[in-house]
């Protein structure tokens, strides 16, 4: 792995961690900007680096750094957020994989909705069902307050990822 790859992965993890500190507690799962960062990073860096950035971020939380909505250690991985945390790297992998092949704002919005929201809500709801003993339907309903904001994040992440990627490509072509 090249130094540039490791730097991008570290930058991605740091961005997710720093933006994750912004939160609004509204129930068992707080509103955060983590998904915005994850979708953007995956859209820019692709599957491998996006996935690894999320894994590094989660490992930072697991070793005790308070990067998971202000928490660290094992608690977030055995509490109500476990399904969402498991979904993050999987979503980054899929968003990144598709963005490497079909990079356009409309396509990336679709991937963000399908994987960044749909997959994350699905696995997050399964986690809530298991940890809190809720019915799956009740666990799905927990996501309702997040829908509008997450939809905005999915669109914004797609726009940012495509525009940043285009700027990087332009600068590379000018430099060569």
From TrEMBL:
One of its GO terms (cellular component) is plasma membrane. GO terms for molecular function: biotin transmembrane transporter activity. It is found in: Cell membrane. It comes from the Bacteria. Gene3D superfamilies: 1.10.1760.20. Pfam families: BioY. It is a multi-pass membrane protein. Keywords: Cell membrane, Membrane, Transmembrane, Transmembrane helix, Transport. The chain crosses the membrane at residues 6-29, 50-69, 81-99, 111-137, 143-162. Belongs to the BioY family. This is Biotin transporter. It comes from Exiguobacterium sp. (strain ATCC BAA-1283 / AT1b).
């Amino acid at each position: 792995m090249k130094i540039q790859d490791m730097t991008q992965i570290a930058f991605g993890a740091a961005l997710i961690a720093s933006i994750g500190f912004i939160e609004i507690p509204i129930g068992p799962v707080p509103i955060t900007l983590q998904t915005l960062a994850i979708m953007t990073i995956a859209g820019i860096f692709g599957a491998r680096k996006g996935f690894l950035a999320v894994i590094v971020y989660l490992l930072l939380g697991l070793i005790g750094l308070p990067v998971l909505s202000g928490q660290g250690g094992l608690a977030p991985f055995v509490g109500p957020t476990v399904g969402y945390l498991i979904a993050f790297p999987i979503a980054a992998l899929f968003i990144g994989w598709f963005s490497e092949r079909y990079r356009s704002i409309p396509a990336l919005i679709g991937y963000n909705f399908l994987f960044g929201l749909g997959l994350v809500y699905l696995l997050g709801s399964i986690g809530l069902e298991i940890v809190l003993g809720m019915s799956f339907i009740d666990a799905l309903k927990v996501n309702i307050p997040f829908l509008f904001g997450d939809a905005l994040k999915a669109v914004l992440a797609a726009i940012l990822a495509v525009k940043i990627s285009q700027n990087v490509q332009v600068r590379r072509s000018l430099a060569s």
